[in-house]
Fold these 4 entries.
Entry 1:
Amino acid sequence: MANQDDNLLKKIVAHAKEYGFVFPSSEIYDGLGAAYDYGQYGSELKNNIKNFWWKAMVQMHENIVGIDAAIFMHPTTWKASGHVDAFNDPLIDNKDSKKRYRADVLIEEYIAKIEGKIKKEVQKAAKRFGDSFDETQFLATNGRVIEYNAQIKSINDRMKSAMETEQLNELKTLIEDLGIACPVSGSKNWTEVRQFNLMFSTELGSLAEGANTIYLRPETAQGIFVNFLNVQKTGRMKIPFGIAQIGKAFRNEIIARQFIFRMREFEQMEMQFFVKPGEEMKWYDHWKEKRIQWHKILGLGEDNYRFHDHLNLAHYANAACDIEFNFPMGFKELEGIHSRTDFDLKAHEEHSGKKLQFFDPQENQNYVPYVIETSIGLDRMFLAIMSASYKNETLEDGSERVVLKIPPALAPVKVAVLPLVKKDGLSEKAREILETLKFHFNCQYDEKDAIGRRYRRQDAIGTPYCVTIDHDTLQDHSVTLRDRDTTKQERIPISELTNRIEGLVSINTLLQKL
Ligand code: ATP
């Protein structure tokens, strides 16, 4: 299974590059680690995802507004948020290969190997017992599996305790006890474990002297917190209300890999919802429900999502979960939903000396609101869509195609306008139709090569509809409309084309399901 999925990720990376979705950043200089550029179709898809999120969160809610804060913020912001002191990863270097690793990831990979062994035991037993195989019972009773699970638990407990108490030497001892070797050199010659802050820093001002260290924001949330009062006052917002934002965030990730899943420069779509203290659990459940619904109406497969509740909560949270998606690498975090208490606003009050409170006329008192956050990585959402949409299919006529079954409302190009041949006035007629459609949809015109090859090109970039103009069109003013997913063609009058396509590809079709 693992191999097959690795292959899927490789295929998606290659397809994304070949068809103008995602390129390695500055590729002519051999690229830059964990930085990617979105190409002509990728940026369209990205914009459509943003649009869908923004509309669902802002436009559809009277009490949510959006902002666009600067990436650079006053350095005290990051002191108050805890990022200067605590946004760290534990690092370890192998002395022979000089390669650097996250100590916790080395341990997690070791655990994953044991999990792999459990999976193998299950597969072997399933084969042996056939139809009568009961996986749950097997997992609970098989001696070897019980032993493996006990090992996993013991390693996890040691790792968590070392991380929580910041016993970095204990992490190193654990790596040594497990006999973990560097995947590159194969040696177990490790340095001590050190904490490494993930924030990128730079200097403000042209003079090095007196220059201030500032940071590229590692999350967009703080831009919302510092504007809480500005927005509340100018928007006359009443609790409960939300502030949404889409923007870049930067983290100096040590192990940045798995394509656009973990990058050093990425984009977040975040919403902070301010509520009355004591009501946060009700809103936490509300937003969990709302956010999973947003995902599911895209039709990428309900089984591809699952909630993962956090047992070890960050110091500022009183509840937290992830929405995980079934990526080619397995179920991984796509979105986080966190009940952040009043931690951030209180910390900014303390550091700024400004009151960040809400006067509640019903209670006739001021309070610092509690916050529920929904935070989704735009790039991870992009990868989720690509992973679920990428299909290798054999058609009825036996031919093969690669098709991206991107939800039509998010597809980069909505309609391709294709004259059957380049002559007999068909190109002119096709261009005439294009001139009307282009005011409504992102269209593409293509008259090169045989029609079958043109359909394949549109399938490969996920275009949901192709309009084909043939000789009959000149007489009956009708065209064929080809559906990407079924490949079925239907003849419809030109006069009905815009309305028909609109009903199939508009973002409203999704929003109405929310
Ligand atoms: P992870 O555990 O995978 O590092 P996180 O828990 O640190 O993620 P959050 O701080 O909760 O992530 O950020 C919210 C969202 O931002 C994540 O759910 C993810 O979709 C996205 N995100 C975080 N880090 C990255 C990254 N390096 N590259 C791309 N997206 C990211």
Entry 2:
Amino acid sequence: MFLDKFSVQKDKILIIDFGSQVTKLIARRIRELSVYCEVITLKELTNIKKFEKIKGIIFSGGPSSVTDKSYPKISSEIFKKNIPILGICYGLQLIAKMYGGKIKKQNIKREFGKVTIFSKTKSILTKGFFKRNESNVWMSHQDAVVKLPKHFINISYSVNSKFTAIQHKTKNIYGIQFHPEVTHTERGSKLIKNFVINICKIKKNWFVGLEKKRIIKNLKNSIGKEKVICALSGGVDSSVVAMLINKAIKKNLICIMVDTGLLRKNEFKDTFKMFKKKYKLNVKLINSKKIFYNRLNNIIDPEKKRKIIGNLFIKIFEKEALKIKNVKFLAQGTLYPDIIESRSSTGSKTSKIKSHHNVGGLPKKMKFKLIEPLKEFFKDEVRNLGKSLGLSNIIIKKHPFPGPGLAIRILGKVTEEKIKILQEADDIFIQSLIENKLYDKIWQAYAALLPIKTVGVMGDSRTFEYTCLLRAVTSEDGMTAAKYNFSNDFLTYISNKIINRVSGINRVVYDITSKPPSTIELE
Ligand code: XMP
């Protein structure tokens, strides 16, 4: 049954996912209030038999239109349960339609991006949300409510939309056209808090430190005296998984570290030392550098690189895992966003931009039972878990790093020589960020090697060497990103430092594009 999907038996806010790109941000905002919530599909909703623990329901936005012949619908039974409901964007339009309002496709009055809305009627939902009766919000809609549904009142409007927030006269049913979950909406968190805490009246019940105890207890019970293996990369997720399971079953957890030769300078060695010596974990080290380098020889196509690395990794991991006798479980660092994204939500068709390689997911044919202790958590919650497990800040605060590693940051052919050059440049960049207290302000930073050599002059000699590209972005979840604004002085300093110290590079450029249109990685 759905409520048993996780072992969390708590009061909760349910978010029904109608396919918006930002649905998971609604869940994040609610978790930030220390309130437990889950994102489910319409189909999962129909399987729920008991509603006692559900204290509030949010209908997310989505790409569908209630003006079309066919669109995702919800049973009107949901309105009879006396549970507060908030509809966002498509969610608002669905509620309005079901209550007899009129929704129309707008060709000229569409609203995308920042829009100012104005307060019309005081509401518990928007208490403290408006400043001088105005608020700047983030909108993304073509359909709009043009006639208020029966029994509803209008809370706010914009220049182009008559109804940007509405509420039922007597029931706790609300709808908003804008997205309060997106940071571009001013005081959006305040509105979500009003709904969750003041309208749904749910008690704070989600504290990662306490959840840690529950997870460790569950792990102990479900693993017993059996052996577990996990792939340890030194990234936050796999590190927290290893620490949690180690707390539960000690030496019966065997961590396998595969050295692909594609990590940052010293990263593999340092991670191995840390987990083996400092945290006393049972770590098995596999040196596979040469195999990876051989297989990548002459490969230029980014997708090919990704596939080769992903498949090879799994093969090596599988082979090593099978050498260890009597292993029953395989642990993976699957996170809650992975669970949300892997389900088919109504009508959301996101196109594949890059094939992501993660340790997770692939070794299904291995005859192990899966353990996914992080599957209820968001990344920031995993970091907090790591902190409460005593994990070093080096790991907790580490910027994200792609599974295929430096191979996708060396454009074109990957060679051992280029890896060494890039490792040096990247290390200088990252260490300088740390020294200048910039590292924690940036979501992700790295150096890449471009496949172009240019002419330079060093001393009195002509040089003909590689170009190093630096990228540093701010982001919330990697879905969108903006360049970090370094001072000119810092950029000059870092460029000089790299060129002076790394032989093989004679030009440094800084990537100023945002995502979209660019992606964070180059390949
Ligand atoms: P893009 O380049 O798609 O990256 O804007 C978004 C985030 O995902 C990371 N990334 C990966 N992470 N395996 C991973 O675990 C991968 O194959 C992979 N490719 C990209 C990227 O570093 C950024 O944080």
Entry 3:
Amino acid sequence: MKLSRFGQRFARRTGARDLMDDLGAAMAGSSDMKMLGGGNPAHIPEIQTLMSERLREVAGSERELKRMLSNYPSPAGEEHFRAALAALLSREYGWNLGPENIALTGGSQGSFFLLFNLLAGELSSGGKQKILLPLTPEYIGYEDLGVSEDMLTSRKPEIEYLDNRIFKYRVDFTGMESLEDLGAICVSRPTNPTGNVLTDNEVSHLSELALHHDVPLIIDNAYGAPFPQIIFSDTQPIWDEHIILCMSLSKIGLPGARTGIVVANKDIIDALTSMNAVLSLAVGSVGPVMMQALVESGEILKLSREVIRPYYERKALQSVDWFHEVLDGLDYQIHKPEGALFLWLWFKGLPVSSEELYQRLKDRGVLVIAGQHFFPGLDEDWPHTRECIRVTYSQDDQMVREGIAIIADEVKRIFAEFGA
Ligand code: PLP
């Protein structure tokens, strides 16, 4: 079989494929692995109960069942959900937008595929545009999205040391104003893999930078406000005509529904609508119909604030404490956990690569993700990229605690082995 250039590019093995293979096997119960790797949200009992009640309601209503399963929605996504969400965002944040500012996709991973290829790559007038990731470490899923090679350019962060072995990455804006050939700027906030939340100042600086370059600022809000609000720091969400806010129903507890949400100006939404029609005619309505009533009533805000956020915050703080207990004696740092489902561990001077540490841990039945995958678009060789791992704390407490103990034991063994 002779594959096209597109075929070769998209059929190859990628970090995202490996990660999702591991995740799929672990979540299907076909492995005994301690799953501290992928980004599956927790099965929060209140959310599970709510979903099963909502499914029963839909099953009992002919009208809703038709909307969920029996009709094609419009290519921009299920109309009622988009209208309810536009109303919620206007009410809550005073943003001047309507349903024509919202498109749905088959998961926000799909949103990024569409957006990156819409805004970057080869130009019909010749030349190329790139997506700037102003701060790495950044989400692994951005890495292989480009239909053409070499679509990303990214930057190292500044590192701020805080108390008690906690640190925080900050955007280093040096030289960003004079960059050329940008198509968009993109950040995840809260950030996967680090749990960092860019400050309001950093985001307004990025917004100005986007205006200066006359490109959109894409904010990946998969974990942010108004839902699922897995965000522990006091920051404000932001949207404007030049900002593309990407959201998802996954981290609230519906990753199987594959629903991504893009909030943007009408031109971007119109382009995404055309792309949806070509790629899939329309995207699924299961997620939108499941969540519409909660969005319409605003109950989703209460749920996010009172159930989801505290659930993860407790787990995050607990996991940091467990790490401090077992890592005693090592030179380690933990990124300040401000949101998302992850802790980012930095073992300074780690004598093996983070990829080897991942393999060793996998052999001992613990899945984490090697840090070196989280620097998409960074050309520079920076030893820091090989000294970090991402640990997911969303799963069962007992499993997380046992996993953390094994991680600490393995890292200590490695340092001992190398006499470091
Ligand atoms: N963006 C970030 C930062 C993520 O962590 C993820 C998933 O882990 C996604 C986007 C993709 O989410 P989904 O495609 O499930 O909506």
Entry 4:
Amino acid sequence: MPSIDVCYSPELLHLYNLKGKVAVVVDVLRATSSMVTAFAHGIEKIIPVSTLDDCQNLKQAGFLTAAERDGRKAEGFDLGNSPFSYMDASIQGKTLVMTTTNGTHAIRLSVAADKVLAGAFLNIGKVAEFVAAEGKDVVVVCAGWKGDFNLEDTLFAGALAERLKDSFAPANDSTLAAQHLYRLAKPDVMGFLANSSHVKRLQNLNITDDIIYCLQEDVYDVVPVLAGDCLVPLNKAAAK
Ligand code: 3SL
């Protein structure tokens, strides 16, 4: 039986061997939720980059850009990191270059995996279906916050492990802990996260609607997958 493991911070990724595995990178609040939303609304490709400089260079090359630091839209770029800004018809068919505080960097750090997916509560059912069909060991890479553990990405890891529990074995206690937390949180995920650091950070910036939106399960059936330097929707990656 394949296994499912959880890496609680990109800072711990050096302890994991991603070769031959599927990495599901998650930044529930908000990077991977925004990516899923963007694909569901017609964006063609997303190039995740780690730094503002890389994003700026690609802006000068003519790309649409999105940049966030510390929860705020970074100056000089087209979009920030609210999923609601990706519901606009003007993004259809475009390639977006995106940098966020943690999420895009976590994707870049996961490239050693056989496949790198962007997971969120919004597309968790399709992510579970895809990894079950692949049948390879899975590592959920939690983007966390500047190297720290966070609760919302952990809950996603637990939720994914719960969905896969009949066909994937927990790799170790990391997975069991995430599952326990998700079972505790499930009746009221928003309430469970009320005192969590990033929820408080976003609420201090008056960003509450985004949180409620990002905690919804199974809204979209798109799975962004890394193909070279770009995330593309799974159906398009398969056609390559
Ligand atoms: O850390 C990240 O990558 C972002 O998703 C953080 S925020 O939700 O935009 O503040």
